[in-house]
UniProtKB/TrEMBL annotation, chain A:
Subunit organization: Homodimer. Forms a membrane-associated complex with FtsX.
PROSITE patterns reported for this sequence: ABC_TRANSPORTER_1, ABC_TRANSPORTER_2
Annotated membrane topology: Peripheral membrane protein
Name of the protein in question: Cell division ATP-binding protein FtsE
Gene name of the record: ftsE
Organism, as annotated: Nocardiopsis ansamitocini
UniProtKB/TrEMBL annotation, chain B:
Keyword Cell division: yes
Pfam families per UniProt: FtsX, FtsX_ECD
Keyword Transmembrane: yes
Protein family: Belongs to the ABC-4 integral membrane protein family. FtsX subfamily.
Gene3D superfamilies: 3.30.70.3040
Name of the featured protein: Cell division protein FtsX
Species this protein is from: Nocardiopsis ansamitocini
């Protein structure tokens, strides 16, 4: 599903590569934690998957497509297959829960009938049934993140990228978020989650890829956050 | 494509930048009005030129007993020989297409007819006041100099009047007006383009959250840009419609007045006016859309 082949990324203003010869394979339906300190290359990895950046060297394949050969006008179609969740939720403050989720479908031209049908389903999937008409500022952080996850998932992407989704949320609420992500993973969606949260990684016992200074230092199925050897 | 969604986005964009939008509309309206006025004057001038070129003539007045000019007083009134020689010379010139001899009686009659609506003028004059003359039609109205110098200062020739001189001054005035209008229009259009660029930039900035999310969920570039482009196009359209009003006003309060004052029989058709208005509106919409597009390429990463 995601295939990195010896990928190096050097940003123009920096000498040290953000990713240095990284080769990673993520299969369909996997749940992968991307761990490592700040500046280790986690965000660069996610940006490369979205083709927000181009690799300096090496090849990136996502959902069977070689991103180097994907022309710019096809990038939006790639992004429709990838859902994204961020630490800062990125909701539209002037739209309610339903409208925020529906926005993702409206802007890719889905018919209104379809939107009316699928949005409530997804809102229920993330555990926000009955809160469709709440505005973002009336919701807790955890609930806001659920809205963001619903928006990322409403178009049924093959891949869900989550960049520290629990970074702004207390540990108890984080467990709920992780349950939602796990539920999404069980529908067959590949989930890649970058995180600092050791407790979550340890409790989930999923595959862990650890980056340090742009290199993969550990790739372990059913791993934990810290060194386990 | 969901029309309702796009329309509501445009409405939000226009309303959020209301003051800038108004500034854009005013600038576009003024520049297009000047542009349209310039075009109208241009059309009027070319129609008048065509009209007059068919009718332009040189009139060679001959000396009579009552002629006052020094030249006539020295040489006395034109003799039959003078007249025959002048006529032969004029007819021999290649630049001349037609020579008509007008007797004093005919000239008097013509005068009466021409000023039939001004009794005082007709009553003040009498037969003989207007000398007999040659009315010379030119093959090419631009070549009047050659003809004029051929007969000037000859025995029996009093004076030569040339329609072209009068018209040239008038056309020069209109031409000046046209270029002034077009120059100001050009400067204003440049200002309008910059202003639109700024408005769209503000609009893109104030909606960067939305566009960021649109990008993320895979909205096409076209879909992301469309509300901004239409925002520009609508400002241009409204400005163009206002300009249309100004152009109508120019037609009725400037050009039609000029026609009445100068007694021209050429009137611009409504078709010509609508053509100018149509061109102005199209120009306005295109200018605004292109300015928006260029701005977006710089300020809206897609």
């Amino acid at each position: 599903m995601i295939h990195f082949d010896n990928v190096t990324k050097v940003y123009p203003t920096q000498k040290r590569p953000a990713l240095d010869g990284v080769s990673i394979d993520v299969d369909k339906g996997e749940f992968v934690f991307l761990v490592g300190p700040s500046g280790s290359g986690k965000s660069t990895f996610l940006r490369l998957v979205l083709k927000e950046e181009k690799p300096t060297k090496g090849r990136v394949h996502v959902a069977g497509k070689d991103l180097a050969r994907l022309s710019n006008w096809k990038v939006p179609h790639l992004r429709r297959r990838i859902g994204c969740v961020f630490q800062d939720f990125r909701l539209l403050p002037n739209k309610n829960v339903f409208e925020n989720v529906a926005f993702a479908l409206e802007v890719i031209g889905k018919p209104r009938r379809f939107i009316r049908k699928v949005v409530p389903e997804v809102v229920e999937l993330v555990g926000l049934e009955g809160k469709s008409t709440r505005m973002p500022d009336e919701l807790s952080g955890g609930e806001q993140q659920r809205v963001a996850i619903a928006r990322a998932f409403v178009n049924r992407p093959q891949i869900l990228l989550a960049d520290e989704p629990t970074g702004n949320i207390d540990p108890a609420t984080s467990i709920g978020i992780m349950k939602v992500l796990d539920r999404i993973n069980r529908t067959g969606t590949t989930v890649v989650m970058a995180t600092h949260d050791a407790a979550i990684v340890d409790s989930m016992r999923k595959r862990v890829i650890e980056l340090e200074d742009g290199e993969v230092v550990r790739d372990q199925s059913r791993g934990v956050y810290g060194q386990a050897y | 494509m969901r029309a309702q969604f796009v329309l509501s986005e445009i409405w939000i964009g226009l309303r959020r930048n209301l003051t800038m939008t108004i500034a854009v509309i005013i600038t576009v309206a003024i520049s297009l009005a000047l542009f349209g006025a310039g075009m109208l004057i241009n059309q009027q001038v070319s129609e008048m030129r065509g009209f007059w070129n068919d009718r332009l003539s040189i009139t060679v007045y001959l000396c009579t007993d009552t002629s006052q000019s020094n030249h006539c007083v020295e040489n006395g009134p034109a003799t039959d020989e003078d007249r025959a020689a002048i006529q032969a010379d004029l007819e021999g010139m290649t630049q001349v297409s037609e020579v008509t001899y007008v007797t004093q009686a005919e000239a008097w009659k013509d005068f009466q007819e021409r000023f039939s609506n001004q009794d005082a003028l007709v009553e003040a004059a009498q037969e003989g006041d207007i000398p007999d003359n040659f009315r010379v039609k030119l093959a090419d109205p631009e070549q009047y100099d050659a003809v004029q110098s051929a007969v000037e200062n000859r025995a029996g020739v009093d004076s030569i009047s040339n329609d072209q001189d009068v018209l040239d001054q008038f056309f020069a005035l209109l031409d000046g007006l046209k270029w002034a209008a077009l120059t100001v229009a050009l400067v204003q259009l440049a200002a309008a383009a910059l202003l639109i660029g700024n408005t769209i930039r503000l609009s893109a900035y104030s909606r960067r959250r939305e566009t960021g999310i649109m990008r993320l969920v895979g909205a096409s570039n076209f879909y992301i840009q469309l509300p901004f482009l239409l925002e520009g196009a609508i400002s241009g359209l409204i400005g163009g419609i206002f300009a249309g009003g100004f152009i109508f006003a120019t037609k009725f309060f400037l050009l039609d007045k000029i026609q009445t004052w100068f007694r021209f029989d050429v009137e611009l058709s409504m078709g010509a006016v609508f053509y100018v208005i149509g061109m102005s509106i199209i120009l306005g919409v295109l200018l605004c859309t292109i300015a928006s597009f260029l701005t977006l390429r710089r300020y809206l990463r897609v």
